[in-house]
Amino acid sequence: MHDLMLESNREPVGSLTVTSPYNGRDLDTIATAGAEHVEDALTAAYGLYRDRDSWLSIPERVAILEKTAEIMSGQVEELTLTAASEGGKPYTDSKVEVLRAIDGVKLCIETLRAHAGSVIPIGTTPATMGRVAFTQKEPIGVVAAVSAFNHPLNLIVHQVGPAVAAGCPVIVKPAGDTPLSCLTFVRILREAGLPNAWCQVLVSDSNETASKLVTDSRIGFFSFIGSSRVGWMLRSKLAPGARCALEHGGVAPLIIAEPFDRDAALAAIAKGGFYHAGQVCVSVQRVYAPAAIAEDLAKDLAAAADKLVVGAPEDPDTEVGPLIRTAEVDRIAEWVDEAVASGATLLSGGKRLSDTCYAPTVLLNPPEDAKVSQLEIFGPVVCVYGYEQLEDAVTASNALPVSFQSAVFCDDIDTAMGLYKRLDASAVMINDHTAFRDDVMPFAGLRESGHGVGGIPYTIEDMQVDKMAVIKSRGL
Question: Are residues 252 and 284 in contact, defined by beta-carbon separation less than 8 angstroms?
């Protein structure tokens, strides 16, 4: 059983068996922590933050992150298999995640080296003559990071890497379904020279225990990736002064307008909709196409969906893996059956392949009030809707209380940019799918989809404060 990775000498309160979402086999057993462990962890982390003489210097942080990237680069295969086995994302995509995570650590270094304060323009009025002012960056405090299952390594890198770069002690709670990649990454950080108390892992025995961490007054910054219900609830309980970033989900729209590259659009929709069995917060879910071609386009997409290989995530030939839990298969089946019963045309999929896998599914013209049209399905389902007027597609795209990334396929620059202007979204991908992301980019959910801005450089910025010095000198 994995030991507790907390600064606590107490015995674990229990254990958690991590299983494969594909076939249920046991992968590992993890020690779990209770409320007293949280108190020990917070005491250690906050003690580090309050002792300014113990802060890690920028050269020390850079050296730790450089060594971390080096160690990870030598363990790509092991990291890939761990992520694929616990999270269910197919081997090929999990390897991409691992390589991206390594690049994310390097991006932390690049950002840290270039991250500086600023000179404040005083001395410009009689009252401020003889003074100069400047700011420097300081860590905001202890970071509490709560993560999601769908990218078990890279999401942790996005939350923990910036904390290390910013100089913040961090306590990270991985998703209960996928803690192994997190534990491995933190072990690598420690092997690279990070003192244990600067990054601790909380695998909690209950949601109440995790809430004690997040809502404690010693937390300076709360980073959350997960459901909007939980995220907004926890934000409402933060201590006064605590800052936060919340990353929830969306019901991502993609608008097709003439003229467009049909083959490129179909390939992108298939990848963006069925990647990781649709378990991505910006997966393509709603496709709006001109009514005259919507059915033919949907049938071609369905043919592509039928060819996708569904199977074991560790198999390099697998293109679509399992859902994270059997209950998710049941939920998706209910939503699809409801949509079909309400008038949607089922063109592919629409069935369980096993207790853990659901067939890639394409629906044509589900009703606007169906769950698949209103809520994030977080499964391998893409809905295609025909529109008569382009403005109708924009109105439908903007109609929900969630707003995240969206996409447009159109080869006319004026039409594409007009859609960019009118879509409610934090990002509009033109001639690409909604799930495109590079870790240097801002990544922000709007409205119910989140709060704050993700992306490694932006997270490092959030985890620091600008501390100003004003110097009065007779020599000026």
Answer: yes
N-term to C-term CA, the chain: 64
* Alpha-carbon gap, residue 167 to 177, rounded angstroms: 29
Task: Specify the CATH number of the domain 253-430.
Answer: 3.40.309.10
Token output for 1:
């059983």
Number of H helices, E strands in the chain: 15, 20
Looking at the chain, how many residues does it have? 476
Domain 14-248+449-470 sits in which CATH superfamily? Answer: Aldehyde Dehydrogenase; Chain A, domain 1 (3.40.605.10)
Catalogue the active-site residues. 247, 281
Domain with CATH 3.40.605.10 in the chain: 14-248+449-470
pLDDT of residue 7: 84
CA distance 35 to 205: 9
Which residue ranges does the chain devote to CATH 3.40.309.10? 253-430
pLDDT at position 1 is 67
Neighbours of 159 (CB within 10 A): 28
- For the chain, list residues with pLDDT below 50: none
Residue with tokens 């909690």: 204
Give all strands (DSSP E) within 95-169, no chain letters: 119-120, 131-139, 142-146
Please state, in angstroms and rounded to a whole number, the distance separating the CA atoms of residues 253 and 411.
Answer: 18
